[in-house]
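Subject — a protein and its fold
Encoding — discrete vocabulary of local shapes:
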Amino acid sequence: MAPEAAGGRVRIAPAKINLALHVTGRRPDGYHALDTLAVFASEGDRLAVGPAGDRLALTVEGPFSALAPAGEDNLVIRAARSLAAALGRPAEAAIRLEKNLPAGAGFGGGSADAAAALLALNDLWAAALPGEELAALALGLGADVPMCLAGRALRARGVGERLAALGSWPALPVVLVWPGRTVA
């Protein structure tokens, strides 16, 4: 059965576009300190989650599926396990990820997928975990995940965890180009 059937949830994991990115330093843990303005495209990967009995299963499909890991290294699986652990419940879900964004292209695809998984599973599992707790889990998955969890025009500082919404932002035409190799 498809994950979106039988009470499942579907989320778009939109491409993250940095309109301005200033690296302000390097931290002892290897992360770069930054100051960035980011917006999100209307297009991206598509994530569907649904009940799966007593297992956690991820299927990766789509034009860029060959570039994305399907196992435990995928941020979607890590997000599901992180949320389940925070809730004290088993990680049980069928997840289908349609990769429309190339991995490592600098569009935040994996981070957006992890954020979409946190939101969709929080809803599927009727957890109602508050936004601050989801943001803490998101940061544990990667520096871009909190930005992608917010999913709106914002300014991010630190490693990406200090977020400030930019309010309403006009629609902008954007052309995303991928050179056929990883850049992020």
